[in-house]
Here is the input.
Amino acid sequence: MSLILHSHPFAAFCQKVLIALHENGTPFEERLVDLGDPAVREAFLKLSPFGKMPALQDGERVVLETSIIIEYLDRHHPGPVPLLPADQALEVRAKDRFYDLYVADPMQRIVGDRLRPEGGSDPIGVETARGILRTAYGLIEAEMGTRTWAAGEVFTMADCAAAPALFYADWVEPIGEARPNMAAYLARLCARPSFARVIEGARPYRHLFPQPRAAA
Here is the structure.
């Protein structure tokens, strides 16, 4: 049975896994998850009880959580690009966690605040998230002055995490001209065929990205 990825092309964490699949040309079937459809939601919750995307189905086995999914693919469906090289495993995992926790997570908090009903915004929480992003940006700017990819000189799982996280974070907290190393890294990620394919696949859904609230 072929691999089935239950996901949405515009979701950052789904894109992380899509990049990994495209990097190695891994055959898979992509099934769109529309949580607004009651029937789809009910079926998906049987695979992922907390409703978190993506979920990878490999026969009877269901694998959740993006980093675990990518490591599972690396072990059980390896391709020409090892995304978790043995000699870099700890550094790759560390950078993967960094981009998930300190770039993707605060970015999603800012986006999530824009989706709250009128009068329910959390300006303190948003500013805290922006502070986390700015700190992360400073670390990335310093680090990317000495390396090509997130964990060194080869593309890994850490870059699968970094690509969508930075792409969307730049929309809510611009990288700007003051961070040339970071901007160059994001440009390299966007030029990577696997991520370029993901960007194009998500383009029809860009209208779903919530815009900033109008000033009072």
Q: What stands out?
A: The first helix runs from residue 12 to 23. The chain is about 55% helix and 10% strand. The mean pLDDT is 95. Helices lie at 12-23, 38-47, 66-76, 89-114, 123-143, 157-172, 180-191, 193-202.
